[in-house]
Each structure stands twice: as C-alpha cells, then as structure tokens.
Amino acid sequence: MRDETLPLSHFEAFYARGGPDPWHFATSRYEAAKYDATLSALPRARYAKALEVGCSVGVFTARLAERCDDLLAIEPVAKALQAAQALNAARSWVRFSSAFIPADWPNERFDLVILSEVLDYLGSADLAKLAECLSGSIEPTGDVVMVHWVGKKGGAAKSTESSEILIKATKGFLRPSCQHRNSDYRLDVLHRDVSA
C-alpha cells in the first residue's frame, strides 16, 4: 500500500516515454484476456449508465461501450484521453472527461463503475476517499468491478492489498458477489446492498 497517491506527473511522463499506447492495451494478449474476463463477469447484459475510471487510450472503453447506454470514461493524462476520444469517436453515447481520482470524481450516479488497474496507484487516504465517492455515486443494485494485476513484481502486492482495503471500506454498502483470480490478475465484482 502506498502512503501517497502517485502524482499526475508520473503518468504524464510514462506516456511521454512510452509512446501512444505504453501499456500495449491494443496488442497485449494479457489485456485482451483480462477484458474478456471483465466483460464476462458483469452481472448484467446491459447497464444504463457506467463509469470507467482510468480509461487510458480507450481500448477497453470501446468494448465496454457495447454493454452501456451511457458511458463516462475518465482519464487524467491529456495525451491518453485524446487517443481514447479518437478511437471512440463513432460512439456518441460515450463521454470523456479529464479527471484525477478521487479529487475529480464526477458528480453523477452510475449503475456500473469499472476500476481496472488504478487502485495500486492510490495512497491510503485517497483509497478512503474513493470509498466515499462510491458510496455517493452507485445506484441501488449497482455494481463495482475491480481488476488488478497480481504478477510477481512489487506492484502486485500493492494491488491485492488495495483491493482488500477498498472492499473493507465499502462493506457497509457494497458486498462481494464474485471473485476470480489467476496467475495474472484478480477480478472482484461488488454489488450495492440495497438495504444500506
């Protein structure tokens, strides 16, 4: 677990060094398999209004959009956000916004929130703030999907710990409904507890 959230400059530098798709979202077999698993894990066939946090260059956004009536994809790095908008230009129901969470959390309600590969960059205080943001923005019977890498490098431990911390912080209003874990990633589906 990080003490402090990584600054925006960290991500801007990564995109500046790594080219237009530094994580290789468009070509990675790992990413394609993770996207397939994420979409398969969605409890509903369709969502009225979804939020994708950290959309990067919009590769998963394009796939997720086919399951949503309205999708807001947020990303703090301008270069990545522009690429995501270009890739999804034909999808009029997909909106994009520059946002660095949790400070720029959208003031909207959603029946689906996707947190993929973002928790391990947040410090402990911002993870707590993220739980508050989710509390105020998840519709009754809404879902939160978290997907994070669990490989062998140091970041994997942070991802797993961050996932557990967020699950614990949201237990008053979200309940785990599904977990899948393999040697590459961990996928958790949380469901809004309508009694909360």
What do these coordinates show?
This protein has helices at residues 8-18, 29-41, 59-65, 78-87, 124-137, 154-169, and strands at residues 50-53, 71-75, 94-98, 110-116, 138-149, 174-181, 185-192. It is an alpha/beta fold. The chain has a single domain (8-192), classed as Rossmann fold, CATH 3.40.50. Strands 3-2-1-4-5-7-6 form a seven-stranded mixed sheet, sandwiched between helices.
> Any idea what the shape is?
globular
User: Helix fraction?
Assistant: 25-40%
In CATH's first tier, which class applies?
Answer: Alpha Beta
Main sheet strand line-up: 3-2-1-4-5-7-6
Major beta sheet summary: 7 strands, mixed
> Helical region count?
6
Mean pLDDT: 93
Quick one: how many beta strands?
7
**The CATH topology:** Rossmann fold
CATH architecture: 3-Layer(aba) Sandwich
The first-to-last residue Cα distance is 28 Å
Number of domains: 1
Structural class: alpha/beta
Primary descriptors:
alpha/beta, 7 strands, Rossmann fold, globular
